[in-house]
């Protein structure tokens, strides 16, 4: 386990690496052009736009290249806890979790 303990309850949003990737997959021209990205965000992340989430992902350093037009979540991310692109904390996968 990590020695670092944070109080993630101070953040309104908590996205796993899989959830970040799901958002990024909707950054392709087809879902964006057909309105599927807007529908997805309204259902799964109400109040957020795709650009606003990208701003958070970029500021937190969790968005890498590859995986399609909008990228993929970088390796080692467990969760991204955030309020906006100025208030966030990245929870990393612990080495003990990787070895299991």
From TrEMBL:
Source organism phylogeny: unclassified sequences, metagenomes, ecological metagenomes
Source species of the chain: freshwater metagenome
Protein name (Swiss-Prot/TrEMBL): Unannotated protein
């Amino acid at each position: 386990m990590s020695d670092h303990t944070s109080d993630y309850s101070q953040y309104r949003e908590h996205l796993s690496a899989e959830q970040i990737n799901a958002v990024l997959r909707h950054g392709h021209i087809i879902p964006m052009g057909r309105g599927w990205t807007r529908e997805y965000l309204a259902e799964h992340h109400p109040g957020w736009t795709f650009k606003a989430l990208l701003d958070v992902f970029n500021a937190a350093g969790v968005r890498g290249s590859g995986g399609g037009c909008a990228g993929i979540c970088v390796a080692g991310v467990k969760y991204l806890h955030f309020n906006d692109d100025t208030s966030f904390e990245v929870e990393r996968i612990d080495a003990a979790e990787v070895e299991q």
